[in-house]
Amino acid sequence: MIEKDVERVCDLISSRRQVGGRTIVAIAGPPASGKSTLARLVVRSLNTQQDSAVPHATLVPMDGYHLDNRQLEARGSLARKGAPETFDAVGFCTAIKGLRSAEHEVFHPKFDRQLDMSIANAIAVHPETPIVVVEGNYLLMDDDPWRSLADVFTVSVFVSPTLEELVSRLQQRWIKHGFDPETALDRTTTNDLPNAELVIGNSRKADLTLNQNYTELGTHHVF
Fold it and tell me: I need a labelling partner for 39 at 20 to 30 A (CA). Which of 11, 55, 139, 179 fits?
């Protein structure tokens, strides 16, 4: 099922390619929707289709712009990590707008889930790479500063399973992190679920909306 969605997204990107410029693609959705998996597979497919030393597509996840845990602790926001205010939203939006220019190689941070922190300059975007896929929860949010990206994305995709499916996935994510089922459900309902509802209820309409559950991903992580 996800293979068909990867093909649909790649076909849409192909039909919207910017001639003489960089194509920037948004893949958005609530936490645990499967957007990260979809984005990763789309980039892999786009690169498989090309025979070049320069990547045809590069993935830039929004998660690299998480505020550091020490900053969140100082703000009393560590328990809300993942909410809009726990990101460097202005810095992220500025960096994504900068991707429209392909004159120089640029670098972006990457979030390491094992370390629970962002690694600076871990993602390189080659100046000759024509497609950049950006992935994250709030890319299509109709609030500042996120809405300033509306004219940046050539293609937008929104992935949104049912809330029931999201709750199940989010709880399982916390259980895999070592929490008991009750604590996992509490973390899901007090933080993750409100973020998911915000994304679903306050995102602009995408060019393509996918409601697949990607159940065949089995034990793979979906974010």
Answer: 179
Task: Give 126-162 pLDDT, tens digit per residue.
Answer: 999 999 999 999 999 999 999 999 999 999 999 988 8
Angle (nearest 5°) at CA 25 between 21 and 28: 160
Q: Give the CA count within 13 Å in the CB-facing half-sphere of 65.
A: 24
The pLDDT of residue 212: 64
CB 62 within 8 A of CB 145: no
Question: Could you tell me the pLDDT band of residue 222, with boundaries at 50, 70 and 90?
Answer: very low
Compute the distance between CA of residue 63 and CA of residue 138 in angstroms, rounded to an integer: 10
Torsion, CA 137, CA 99, CA 119, CA 53, rounded to 10: 110
Say if CB 77 and CB 115 are below 8 A apart: no
CATH superfamily entry for domain 2-216 = P-loop containing nucleotide triphosphate hydrolases (3.40.50.300)
Q: What is the pLDDT of residues 29-56, one digit of tens each?
A: 999 899 999 999 999 999 997 778 899 9
- In terms of Cα–Cα distance, which of 213, 166, 161, 159 is closest to 185? 166
Task: Please determine, for residue 114, whether its predicted confidence score (pLDDT) is greater than 50.
Answer: yes
